[in-house]
């Protein structure tokens, strides 16, 4: 008999059906026993009145996998208005060890390290599953929005020859006897691919040998990258990003959370709003929170762009603001007071790259394959990178990014 | 004035428009000059009769990026039935170096290593762009087909603590002072996630420190992975894979290339078809080609499943064939005579894993986080992995996987 899902039960009253899933809970009362079975779609309640099935149930423990053949019986008190009666239970996989923590409570009670040690089990909790489903939803929305806007998906190398993008915080590996590094971002490659497709995006892992042990840093995270050519400046990039974020978040909320136009403040104005000294080179987390509060108060927006970061704090490929080249055409997007996107306009002429690298005291040779793209003609372009786990943590109001990551990697953790 | 794309020109006869793109070719005739501009959608022909514009054109070289404001003039001989006349040309990015090879010929004439050295340029050739677009199309189809079938997208770690899945061919890296490895596949993680979502998929990079220098091996490639629970055996996996492949390839061909049911032969029968000795443990490339030929001849199919590979050649997590446990419930899918997918049913009880690892002489401790999933209840399950670049190479009849990979990594190559 074909297995059906818990969500399909109400459509089969009085029929004999097969369900399958994990034992979420057993309740062994005196005259009757209840078995709650979890599957991909929800829960089913199984009523056990028969002595031999009850005895079988007494020997089964939570998270064992069972198949149940039973009759669908309407019962207003049961979840979905139906329960399963007169069950035959077949065990597909029996759990014989005690669970390290209980899964059926509203919140996981175990300490976070214990949860992460037993990620295969902890991820089955509804809160953890929900966060990962949200990650899948916004990722699908990212791709759908960009495909719709003529972006082409690319896959780029994660192993690179030189630690060029930023000297520190790279993982070094042995590449057939030669030193190599894990890519910190697809930045260079997505820019080169603008020369091929004009507009590209990539969803993939990036690696940061980040010595910070905080609630928002991971050694591997998922970056949602996009890059687009033939722009006037960074404002074209921001407009595309705003449209993309609207599609990404649309399925999650009844009322749209992305305004048609996200408020934007210049960096110098952001410092003023945050009450920071006017010569600060960057926004500290407390400043970001203050700007986030301001946007909510003044514009009713949970999102706010900060534009025009000082050139000295942005990477060498950043395009300066033509009106005042000490500031850049780079931006950050804050969501609920936290930076979740970095983006901007990039340099696009070969001459500008040579000058920028020379000014930074960098040799040109390690950048050879990258500079090739600009030597052979690149349009004005720009793009952004969204940190998926940070965004999902903020969307779900989860304090630690590790709680919305399937198997996080950090300074101390490399298993499971 | 808003830029329009080459494909939009026929909709604007006699209007003044702005286009932008790369100079594909110039033809400087005596009385008139032609400029062919390439953008994301195709080519535009610009006719230059004005002396000052012609002089400007004489100083511009191929691949320079230009913006052209001109009049759309119907001309039956021109591509798309229109050409651009009375142009004003603005240079967005001038190429001042000679190109290492020409891009406007039907095939790239440079040797493959030269193309790969200048990938940022070579990828602009129509043949290379087309292959990467096909990769994007089949990847999108993979996700669409699986999402439709209740699979949830996951992202899993690419840095792992032990080289457990297969001892050799792993890249070793320095993880905050400890040894670690790049994941050869998401196998263990996708299996664990069956315990969370029942059905999962992942599109991501996998890493093989593959010493083979062949036309079909890469050190990094894109793996299209899926895993599903509550199956009867590997045939449920094959049915889902067949449906998925049909969606993936549907946009590429006028006539569907995936039959409703892909022919399947048992390994022992495949050996007989290939004329190989009956005690061979695996299929050699020549055997795969022979089986591919047989499927085309006998079933009119370019795809053929080979099932029941001997257990001794499959990984420890492979489920044996209950009817004869020297053979497995593992399969390969051959496409045009080449293996492009490996899949099968996996073991699912904790006891079976302990026994399989013990039989293989493996300590249990490095598998701790993996075994956790089975200790705490896992349904019968199975899945597959498609090698994206190999599949695209076969689809486009390209001899070398490096030609369909944006920036390939192999034994000798780590740049650009």
List the helices and strands and how they pair.
The structure is a homodimer of 416-residue chains.
Chain A: E1 16-28, E2 33-39, E3 42-48, H1 51-58, E4 65-74, E5 82-93, H2 112-117, H3 119-122, H4 126-148, E6 152-153, E7 159-160, E8 172-175, E9 178-182, H5 187-197, E10 199-207, E11 220-229, H6 234-249, E12 264-266, H7 267-274, H8 285-299, E13 303-307, E14 330-335, E15 338-346, H9 350-359, H10 368-375, E16 381-387, H11 388-395
Parallel strand pairs in A: 6-10, 12-13
Antiparallel strand pairs in A: 1-2, 1-4, 2-3, 4-5, 7-9, 8-9, 10-11, 11-16, 13-14, 14-15, 15-16
Helix pairs in contact in A: 4-6, 4-11, 7-8, 9-10
Overview of the molecule:
Two copies of one chain form a homodimer. With 416 residues, chain A is of the alpha+beta class. Chain A folds into two domains: 6-93, Nucleic acid-binding proteins (OB fold (Dihydrolipoamide Acetyltransferase, E2P)), CATH 2.40.50; 126-404, Bira Bifunctional Protein, Domain 2 (BirA Bifunctional Protein, domain 2). Chain A has eleven helices and 16 strands. The first copy, chain A, has helices at 51-58, 112-117, 119-122, 126-148, 187-197, 234-249, 267-274, 285-299, 350-359, 368-375, 388-395, and strands at residues 16-28, 33-39, 42-48, 65-74, 82-93, 152-153, 159-160, 172-175, 178-182, 199-207, 220-229, 264-266, 303-307, 330-335, 338-346, 381-387. In chain A, strands 6-10-11-16-15-14-13-12 form an eight-stranded mixed beta sheet, sandwiched between helices. In chain A, α4 (126-148) crosses α6 (234-249), α4 packs across α11 and α9 packs antiparallel against α10 (368-375). The longest helix of chain A is centred in the first third of the chain and has 23 residues, at 126-148. Chain A is elongated and about 85 Å long. The model of chain A has no long low-confidence stretch (mean pLDDT 96). Chains A and B meet through β1, α3, α4, β6 and β7 of A and β1, α3, α4, β6 and β7 of B. Chains A, B: It catalyses: tRNA(Asx) + L-aspartate + ATP = L-aspartyl-tRNA(Asx) + AMP + diphosphate. Chains A, B: Residues 187-190 are annotated as: Aspartate. Chains A, B: This is Aspartate--tRNA(Asp/Asn) ligase.
